[in-house]
Amino acid sequence: MTALGNPAGQQTVRRHNLSLITTSLAAAPGSRAQLAQRTGLTKATVSSLVDHLISRDVLVEGPPATAGIGRPARPVTLNPEGPMALGVEVNVDYLTVCVLDLTGQLRCYRHSVAENRARSAAEVIEQTAELVGEVLRELGRPLLGAALALPGVVGADGTLSRAPNLPGLTGGQPGRQLAAALGLPPLLVDNEANLGALACLRAEPAVGPDFVYVSGEIGVGAGLVVAGELFRGVNGFAGELGHVVVAQDGPDCGCGGRGCVEQYAGQEVLLRTAGQPGLEQLEAAVAAGDPAALDAVARAGSALGVGLASLLNVMDLPTVVLGGVYARLFEAITPSLTAQLDRRALAPRGAGRLSRSPLGIDAAARGAAGAVLDRALRDPAGIPVLAGV
Amino acid sequence: MTALGNPAGQQTVRRHNLSLITTSLAAAPGSRAQLAQRTGLTKATVSSLVDHLISRDVLVEGPPATAGIGRPARPVTLNPEGPMALGVEVNVDYLTVCVLDLTGQLRCYRHSVAENRARSAAEVIEQTAELVGEVLRELGRPLLGAALALPGVVGADGTLSRAPNLPGLTGGQPGRQLAAALGLPPLLVDNEANLGALACLRAEPAVGPDFVYVSGEIGVGAGLVVAGELFRGVNGFAGELGHVVVAQDGPDCGCGGRGCVEQYAGQEVLLRTAGQPGLEQLEAAVAAGDPAALDAVARAGSALGVGLASLLNVMDLPTVVLGGVYARLFEAITPSLTAQLDRRALAPRGAGRLSRSPLGIDAAARGAAGAVLDRALRDPAGIPVLAGV
Predict the structure, then answer these.
(1) Per-residue pLDDT of chain A (389 residues; tens, 9 = 90+)
(2) Cβ–Cβ below 8 Å for A256 and B343
């Protein structure tokens, strides 16, 4: 309430009003007059904010539309050639990099096999930085920001506190290390299943606001979405579907327990049971009707269904979305999985109770870029002013 | 914004202000002047509200305190002899009725064995209404309201939609039926584990705002508390710990699944394994060091630990509170249960990670009365004007 407080107050209001403009345009394009109507701001305020965002390349104004009476309106839209959002996923056996423009369109993509399990942090960061560098050179545009998806539990400060399949990175801050290698500000960092779930929320509104996104990779994780928001748990450990118990006396698990979902339905167990060296070969064998491959997938689906039934009986979520490996094997894995859900899950499920994520193995990187985009649209004043690459 | 809107607006403000007075006095007694300070209302407004609540027997004003300077202040408190909150639990093998006064003190209590599993709704309601009638006659005071705890899933309209151990009541509205039998307004109705968790939140602030309350009766349920609020799930089915899987190929369960927690740790299985006819006998055998009883309890604890580990790996809650049967067998059941949690649960747990509910088998009835009390304190204008009994 001091005089010194006033300028800060005005800046806060301006920051909020900028966000009204960008979130309104993310929902639908509109002229300055339409924006004034939608936001309740005066036309003069809207014009000043729009001019500012055009000067920052966040918005563009199209040619006057000819239809209608009166002065032709010029549509304002988010700038598809403006600064862009970078999403990176470092997983156990691959790297993915993607770029979304301000309208949410995919503009650049790289996927690379990488044996990260046995590597040091320095080796992982070096290969990732190389791949990102390639993408940024191809893109030739400034960034809104960048985010990193990791297969483990990520603390509020970006520390990867638990990632049994990535021992080299565990305990470190890969988001800071990658930022340093690239000369970028620190990356947003989150668990890959959480970011895959956010990508699903953005890409598939029909799924609804309450669902579990299953991320099937070397590890098995779940992103839990409750009322449109991620459910992270008190310590960020929520959704550890890979360590829900299928059989208390089952095979030993890397977590110290026994009979966890990961020991029946994880990618490595699945390939071993099927006698296939890799996912492509497994998919081909399934397509060719190979009995050993079909049986291995059915058994993984059954165990995953048992674990998911326990999860649904705890959380009461109406919908399951399969991502990663399970999205690729969707037709083959669904019958045994559904049989367990039908038998064991108590709560009524929604119409689209079991669906396939169309983003497949790219969901987490897409979700990471999407998180950057959401942050920029909610707070366009926070978009860094970066030189073009 | 019409002239007609004003009286409604004033009533809303008065209703809100009445609630400021009662919630402030639930935290600590205070004079009219102190209430004005705490609530920000004028002394005149406070006096008018306090006079109204005194006339309704909700508040009482004590004699002037002699200490201090100036005119001696008279402490205003919630009236321990005012209208009271009735809590009822109908479970598979017992009924519990309790009454809390406005200060939260237990004023009346009845517990009665009742073989409700094989009974019709009419028979259950009749015995319950008799027991409640006894309590109300003993009490001889008007009620703030009443609530009913049931061992099953309760819909928003009070329908008991799923209760495999109470087939006679399933599909009906026991809260309405009991209200009709007693001549009371419809009862609040909720799941017994949810109400047990609320009782725990009220009685044991040290447990913190995030925990799972385990209700061990014939069925095994859990009340999930996240950030101080019940987590109910989309359809009210959350917390079905009894149907989390311990072993996918385990014994058939009444839910249609196999190897659920209830088939290893439910009260009936526990008694059968221990070779004891009832809980009192099991407790005596455990106290006497009977090997079969100790082994049965240890095995139930281990299976419950496996199920709870899956629940914690999904929800990431730091604390477990054992209620019902498990509270009674706490010392005997804890070692095997803790061994499984230590081995299998990934997230860090809090200092009081495993505790015993001091309310035991009465938690749900206490929670039901507590829910009525909370509602009355949050909205004292909604307290019904009832004649004394």
Answers:
(1) 334 444 557 788 899 999 999 999 999 999 999 999 999 999 999 999 999 999 999 999 998 876 666 667 899 999 999 999 999 999 999 999 999 999 999 999 999 999 999 999 999 999 999 999 999 999 998 999 999 999 999 988 999 988 988 999 999 999 999 999 999 988 999 999 999 999 999 888 889 999 999 998 888 999 999 999 999 999 889 999 999 999 999 999 988 999 999 999 999 999 999 999 999 999 999 999 999 999 999 999 999 999 999 999 999 999 999 999 999 999 999 999 999 999 999 887 664 589 999 888 899 999 999 999 999 999 998 887 654 43
(2) yes
| A215 neighbors A262 (Cβ within 8 angstroms) | no
β-pairing verdict for B211-216 and B220-226: antiparallel
Q: What residue has token string 């991620």?
A: A230
Q: Does domain B5-78 have CATH number 3.40.50.300?
A: no
Domains A5-78 and A205-357 share a fold: no
Continuous segment of H or E residues that includes residue B144: strand B143-150
- Asked if A235's CB is within 8 angstroms of B318's CB, the reply is yes
Q: How far is A302 from chain B (nearest CA, A)?
A: 10
- Those residues whose C-beta lies under 8 Å from the C-beta of residue A65, and which sit 6 or more positions away, are A72, A73, A74, A75
- Cα dist from B181 to B119, B122, B136, whole Å: 17, 10, 13
Could you please state the CATH topology (level 3) that the domain comprising B84-195+364-382 is classified under.
Answer: Nucleotidyltransferase; domain 5 (3.30.420)
Q: With a CB-CB cutoff of 8 Å, which residues 149-188 of chain B face chain A? A: 153, 162
